[in-house]
Amino acid sequence: MQETHREDQPAPQREQVIADLLREIRTSESTYTVSDFHAPWSYYNPPSQVRGGFHFILEGDCWVQRKSGEFIPLSAGDFVFLPFLYGHQIKDHPASSDSLQDSMTLKKTGIFSFCMTKARGGKRAKLICGGVELKPRWHPLIQELPDLLRLTPEQPTAEPWAGIILRLLDQANRGGEIGSTAVADRLTELLVLEVIRKWLRDECSRRSTGWISAFHCSRLGRSIGLIHSQPGKNWTVDALAKAASMSRAAFASEFPQRMGMTPMNYLLSVRMNLARDRIKSGKSQGWISRELGYSSEGSFRRAFKRYWGFTPGSLKREDTGN
Fold first, then answer.
1. Greatest pairwise CA separation for the chain in angstroms
2. Quick one: residue 208, left, alpha or beta (phi over 0 = left, psi -120 to 50 = alpha)?
3. Which one of 86-90, 127-131, 163-167 scores highest in mean pLDDT?
4. 187 and 316, same domain (yes or no)
5. Are residues 223 and 158 in the same domain?
6. Same domain, 300 and 199
7. Which domain holds residue 168?
8. How sure is the predictor about 5, in pLDDT bands with cuts at 50, 70 and 90?
9. What is the dihedral of CA 286, 287, 289, 290, to 10 degrees?
10. Does 154 lie in the same domain as 302?
11. What pTM did the predictor assign?
């Protein structure tokens, strides 16, 4: 009978694996708009190919639209994050059709833009809405995120400090003091990481296959974590199996069952996506080839072209517009 290992990692090891993973996730180029609306109101947020979005409810209640078209209610203190910004509406009630686009006034103070409507006598809602770029977008975790993640500080699984961060973000909006941009960016990144961490914790128990299951809930997570943290090491199936405390046969069998590809193909995928990021950031091919464990620039270029179908140089020219 073939040996298999499907038991969960011990809690300390599992937490370390998740901590290492979250260190790879980062946000950049955050934007903020403070919206002060009076019912009835409805606002459409257009889609974006590269950005995610968030809504933090400061006061009142509203409804946000999921990708399926369903509306879910939000209350003061709720934070929702949309990893991939699909076109969606946010409104005072699902039945509202009174668009704000033609009746808003907009001004900018410090890091925040302020969007307001005239008082209409209806219930007030105040929220911070923003855009944020989640990187690296190719990361398997980011690709498996749902359309919407929600953090409510009163939830039993929410950490007490999440509520503190939400209040600090509100204070950054109110104060406009020196350094507010850096503070708001860090607070937003912490909120995004916390809502992802909470989702990971809840989602793990529901998955038996896929990247999250393999990374978070099985011994395979140790080897996957090492591939991400040391992509340039000369990994072999034997070495990765040893890191997972599994026999070579069991590791080579379970990895593709959960991940849909062999360990070496997964290593190649991580290396090639990292290489693409490094090229776009301006790193030289020599530097990238050394970082990712290739013996020469030539071997790196050949591997890159086999994987992507074009050369590293053509990607750099395309990115710079030359």
1. 72
2. alpha
3. 86-90
4. no
5. no
6. no
7. 25-204
8. very low
9. 120
10. no
11. 0.77
